[in-house]
Design a protein that fits this description.
The structure is a homodimer of 305-residue chains. The first copy, chain A, is of the alpha+beta class. Chain A has nine helices and 16 strands. At the A-B interface, helix 1, strand 3, helix 2, strand 7 and helix 6 of A face helix 1, strand 3, helix 2, strand 7 and helix 6 of B.
Chain lengths: 305, 305
């Protein structure tokens, strides 16, 4: 009952557009023949607005196009329409600081796996107040668990396509929560580290900042990309290379990145403790500071307020 | 335009119930916050009615319960309610020969992977005229392709849970169609044969009928199950064992099974030809005949007309 009331309040502060039209969130519905509903046959992006500007919007739109390519989506809805509706949704929300979800499905079709049955897309955009993560996450780090659920194989459903098939991640987070952890780290079928359920993973080992390559089976995060550029600009020692579980446990610092969370330190993975505040993690503290600076100086290309 | 008109006609002959309520198919919609839409966080069954009776209904309901268990779904909607709505949908359709899809989602929630955010289920049932497969499929067999898309790993998203995460299969059928094939056969990450996109696979090699074990990473088909019982009853030489690609190409007969298709012979896999009519496939011809007999003598437990 409490969850239901909480969800009802949640909807009241949510703005939804479907195919160019605004709906109250509690009446925002999609056909049960939409392939996103039937098969998870959809792609999406989660980005955010700060001070009335969408951050890294071109990066997100480019990744959406890349997901479409990987899944062989025909784009009946143009990229310009997608951008327009995204900005319109944020404008309508009136939120200076916002979370934005863009969902593009392969549209409605007969109940048939064959994607050639589709003839249009459905575009759903959802704006909400940007989630505020607890300050402790940034100061004291989070607790992750290395779960038994392995990441989808790159040859089965490529994790680099940001799609509506998220059961793999749902199972992983469920396993982590059952351990009392904040979230999960997943390995691939060869036992190499990939990513979390909604974030990329990084370690600092003997002074080198390391994150695994896309080929390990993970999503090319926008924060990952921009942080890598920043690290190169700063001339810091770094590498994109395979990470084994043993590397996690011999690392001095571990952190995660995502568009909505930016950089969050990891205080613990299962029984391994990395420390309990940023004073133990000089590299992370420096990157958090530098990344915040980077965001402040972002070109204000996409204004929605 | 033609696909759209075709789909519009399709909807006119489709009956939909959502959470106990009947909707015209073109107005049957679900919240965009339904986890089935957001994450493919749903389970389903596809069964069929013949002469006004649902066939193997208990098997399908048991499998739905098994899928729920594998994905740790809380069943807020009782099994009795699910059965009731399924029968109601078929009754309303008035179809003697029907296809029935039962979709149960983890319900609506905040946009969060955490399944504990959910507080109810959504139940969608869809009835349609039973698809009529071309007679040639049964007489002359179909053409399959062994695709590069591998089946979801049992440790990532278990294919034995019949869920709303079907992109893996969508990618596989797309690959097969691009080859001009009817459908796909998928291997697991170890290179062993699993199943097709919506059917189980069988071979006949040196007089032995073989189908791969669930552990290879495949769905426990209802037709597979009932055909295995029939084969045992008939005392035919058979085995449930791993199948390698080489076995496919050295087999004398190959066939597929699914609830809606029953038994269909395979005439060709890529460049390997098995023959062009049932006279080449004595084992399959016998099983098709015997399975049809079995269906005729099914206990008429679930009458909907």
């Amino acid at each position: 009952m409490e969850k239901e009331q909480d969800f009802s309040r949640y909807l009241q502060e949510t703005t939804v557009f479907i195919n160019g039209e605004n709906f109250p969130a509690k009446e925002a519905r999609i056909s049960v023949f939409d392939r996103g509903f039937l098969f998870g046959d959809s792609i999406y992006e989660a980005c955010y607005g700060e001070d009335g500007f969408i951050l890294f919007f071109d990066d997100h739109i480019n990744r959406l196009k890349h997901s479409a390519k990987l899944l062989k989506f025909t784009l009946y809805t143009s990229v310009e329409e997608i951008k327009k509706q995204a900005i319109q949704t944020l404008s309508k929300s009136g939120l200076k600081s916002a979370y934005l979800r863009i969902i593009l499905t392969r549209g409605e079709s007969k109940i048939s796996l064959d994607p050639n049955q589709a003839f249009k897309n459905n575009l759903v955009t959802i704006a909400r107040p940007k989630p505020v993560y607890p300050k402790e996450y940034y100061l004291n780090g989070v607790y992750l668990s290395l779960v038994n659920t392995i990441r989808n194989d790159i040859r089965a459903v490529d994790p680099n396509a940001k799609s509506g098939n998220y059961l793999n991640n749902v199972m992983a987070i469920e396993e982590a929560k059952a351990q009392g952890a904040y979230d999960a780290i997943m390995l691939n079928s060869e036992g190499k580290v990939t990513e979390g359920t909604t974030f990329n993973l990084w370690i600092v080992k003997n002074g080198k900042i390391i994150t695994p390559p896309i080929e390990s089976g993970l999503l090319a995060g926008i924060t990952r990309k921009n942080l890598l550029i920043l690290i190169k600009t700063l001339g810091l020692n770094h590498a994109i290379e395979e990470i084994h579980p043993a590397d996690l446990f011999s690392a001095q610092e571990v952190f995660i990145t995502s568009s909505t969370r930016k950089i969050i330190p990891v205080a613990r993975i299962d029984d391994k403790i990395y420390g309990d505040n940023t004073s133990h993690w000089p590299t992370i503290a420096n990157l958090m500071h530098r990344f915040d600076e980077l965001i402040q100086t972002q070109p204000a290309e996409y204004k929605y307020l």
